Structure formats: C-alpha cells, structure tokens
Here is the input.
Amino acid sequence: MGPAELLGHQVTDAPVGANLDTEVRPTGVHRIRGFLVDATRGGVLGPLVALLFASVVFSALTDTFLTPSNISLILTQSIVIGMLALGQTMIILTSGIDLANAAIMVLASVVIAKVVKVSDNAFVALLIGLAVALALSAISGLLVSQMNLPPFIVTLGMLTVVTAAARLYTGSSSIPVQNDLIAWLGTPVPIAGFRFTIGVFVWFAAYALAWYALTQTGWGTHVLAVGDDPEAARLAGIKTRRVLLSVYLVAGLCYAAAAWQALGRIPNADPSGYASGNLDSITAVVIGGTSLFGGRGGVIGTLIGTLIVTVLRNGLTQAGIDSLYQDIATGVLVVAAVLIDQITRRAR
Amino acid sequence: MTAPVLSAHRLFKHFGAVTALDGADFEVCEGEVMAVVGDNGAGKSTLIKALTGALVPDSGQILLDGERVRFHSPIDARRHGIETVYQTLAVAPALDISANMFLGREQRRPGVLGSFFRLLDKPAMRTRAAATLRELGITTARSVRQQVETLSGGQRQAVAVARAAAWGSKVVVLDEPTAALGVREAGQVLELVRRIRDRGVAVILISHNMPQVFEVADRIHIHRLGQRVALVRPTDVSMTDVVAIMTGARAGNEGVADADLPHGDGA
Here is the structure.
C-alpha cells in the first residue's frame, strides 16, 4: 500500500496550504518555475555570472579573446580536465574526493598507447585502457565503500602507486601513437569559423548524460542522499555501499574517456603528464559550486567551473599577464568558492 | 478492542550471557497508539528491533494480521507495511520534501521512459507528497519542492513521520520522535501521531517522556528486564504508577503473581 491508496481516504476537514495546493496541478508556469528551481539548485548561477564576467572583461581587454579560433582553443583545452572533473564531481557529491583520477587516466593512456604499438589493434587497446581505469577506480571504490576508509587516504595511496606504475611500465618515456581510431576524438569539426573537434561534442554529451543520471533518475537521488546524509540514506533503505561503489565505477569510465580524449588531443602518451590534473579537476568542481561536504552541486556547475579555469588562463595569457598570476587568480577563486559554500551552509 | 494487527509472543533474545528479551509479549491494534516505556537497558529497543526486522529473535512468534511472519531486515518489515521513524531526524537535508518522502522508493515514469531511461516521475511524486502532507494537516511547508534543510527541526521530523505514514499501511513505529525537538515542535509531532492513529494505523511510540506518553497513548506497554511487566491504560493509572512499575519499585499486572492493577485490555 502506498500514497496512491492514501489518496483514497482523504481527511476532508484538513486545512489546505495555499501553495501546497498548487503542487497538485502542475501547470505550465509552475513547470517552468520548477525547472528553474531545479536547474539552479546546484548553485550554477554564481559560477555562470563569474564566467560571463571574466569573458566580458577579457573581450574588452584584448582583441584576440572573443574570436572563433580562440573560443575553439578554450573548449579543446578544457576537454581532458573536463572529463576528469566529471568523475570527480560525482565522487565529491558523495562527500569523497579522488586524488588519483589524473594518474589513472595517465596509466590508461600509456597502456592504450603501448597495446596499439605492440598489437596495432586500437579497439582492443581502448578496451584494455577502459578495463584498467575501471579496475583501479573499483579498488578505490571498494576500499571506500566496503572498508569505510577515508577517500582522501585511499586515493592518495592510489595516486602514488599508479603514478609509479605508469613510469615503471613505460621506463619513464612517452609513447607516440599513430592510429586513426585513437586520434578520432581530435578530428576537427569546422563550423562557421570555429574549429571544434569531435572530442568537444563527446565531452558535452558526457555531461548531458551525467546531468540526466544525477537529476532525473533514482540513482542520482541516491548518490546525492548518500553524500548528504549517509545514515538517513541507509535508514531509507538505500544500499549505500552499492551506490558508493557505482559512483567510483562511473568515475573510472570518465577517466578512461579522458585518456582517449587526451590521446585525441596529443597523440603521445606521457607517463609524467597531467601531474596537476587531479587538483585542476577539484578546482573545476569547487569553482562550479559543488560542495566538498557532499550532497550539493552538480555537473553543470563543473562544466562552467572548468571553463572558468581555462578562460582565466587563456584570457590572462592573451592580456600578456605572467602565467604565475594565473595560478594566483585560480587559487584565490578556489578558496573564495569554498568560502561562499561554507557561508551559505551556515546560513541554512 | 479488535484483534491486534501486530503481536509478539514469548520472544527471547540472548546476546552472550545477556538476556535482552526474556519471553516478551507485545501487541498493538489498528487505530491505537501503543506507548512502549521502560528504563534504559530494559530491552525495549531490542523488542522494537525484533518487531521491525532490525534483528531476529532467538525464539518466539511475531504475528502480523494473525499470520506468523519472520522479518530478516528492516526492508523486509517495510514491505509488510511496517515503517519506522528514528529520533535522529533521518532525512537528507539537501533533498527536497518530495524526494525525501520517496527516498529509496522513487517512482518512475510509465512505459519505456521509466523502464529503460529510468526517468523519475517527479510531478507525480510531488503531487502525492503534497496530498499526503495536506491529509496529515502539515501546511507549514510552502512547497514540497522546498529543501528539507530550510525547515525547522519539528518540520523535518514531520516530514519523516509523514513519510512513514505514507508508506506504513499497517504499523508506524516512532522511536523517540520528539527527543530532538522543542516543546512546541514536539506538540506538532504528537498531533501528527494522533492523526495517523485516526486513519486506522497502529502506532508504536517509544518514549521516555511520561507527559507525552499520557497525552497521546491509548495503552502503555511497560517493559522491564526483557519482559512486558504491565499493559495499562493511561486513564487507569498515574505517571507515578508507571514509573514505579518501570523501575521495579512496584509490581506490574503481568509477569508477576500479585497483579494489583487493572489489566490494559480490560480483562
């Protein structure tokens, strides 16, 4: 028996709240309002304003910022961190953190490159790369979900081990890849003066899919609930360990995709590459408004956060400002984002 | 009084040398608030856990609607229409009221959208959540889209109780539901308890708060040393009597020979 049957025996004399009444008949206006409430619930409004503000400022300061070629460059430069940040967002939503994401991606990419070199079978190489990323993320996920170890420590260990493994595996030298399938995501897609790549569209599609899964499915609700209050989620009958593990597996899928994207951008697997990819992805997630405390935020914010970081780097370079100032700007932004999160949390 | 909807007979549970349930009996009827009181360590939480599937007793019977049942997990008990509200305000603060009421039991769109694309039916869940709140007279929330963290402690607990009421078709168990609340908020939750009872649901209320128990309970189950030692009506006894029986200063009407109190079921 559920609420459907409860509707059967109505208590007629119960007082009716005026606004609650509107919930019974969601009209067009209410649907739109509801959609806006849902869309901004992750707090994307602030990051969006920041992104637009930075873009306007750089457009005014330089002639080169607001050009099709530069916008294309910003997008292609954002892809790899964007894919890493996608997995990172889901893990942070469960109040975890993944320090090993870039290291896992790098190991997957060198494995893909090596398998292609040895066998010349790119499809098998991609599958093996996917398996590596999934397996490593699964280990992190199992340790976090089944053994209740802190994600920070688990992934710190994973980062150290995987980084070393990638260097041992390659003898610390990078592996060039010459293969059409591996490079496929780097294929240029010229549209009206812009030079997008297939990878840009795959990146957006991945975000759209993740947005759907997180906001429109029961799984997404469970992920948020587990990050928000694991005990409440468990008492509600959610299998919290399974949900946690599934999040790490989805993240592993993102990291494998990031490896493919990285090889599409630069057909050279470097075991020492993306050394700060983990922190860059955390930066993108945090600037995008996802709370490090879990349960609040979403992938749209991360998409904007990733773009903010790239736009800042790109714009300050266009404006001829020393790259070290870019780091200072990014660092200040991260702390400011967490500060805002903390203040709004306290206000609740 | 009708036949009990949920009852237990001679439940035993041992934890090593400790006997937590020592032949405990229990019953609750439709449309009744059964308060369960007892000193700390009397075994009342073990009893409640056995009734809600959180643990399996060593021996004894649990009957639901007269049929013997064995619950192996709280989810198991829930499937049989037994819902539990915990004192810890077990709601997810960042989720909205509707999502909390359907947490773990989300409703999906009919057809391929729901089965393959796993698309949630948010409008339907919101409509049902709002209807349930309205029916229970919870009108303080502006909208079921409101995040639970924007609610006061009492309102949050009201959402938890409403969730239990929405799904607990037979029995709603409230474990110290007012422990974390202020006086006014506790009053609102007790009002909610009455409304649930008036809908014909059996309510089990575990509480330390004697005035609250006397305010809302139809019968009081007094638990001591792993047993029900008395089953009384609040109209027949005083708070002092109940406390005396609870602490063993005075004998109850069960489990001991010289019962000097009127029996709860009017026998």
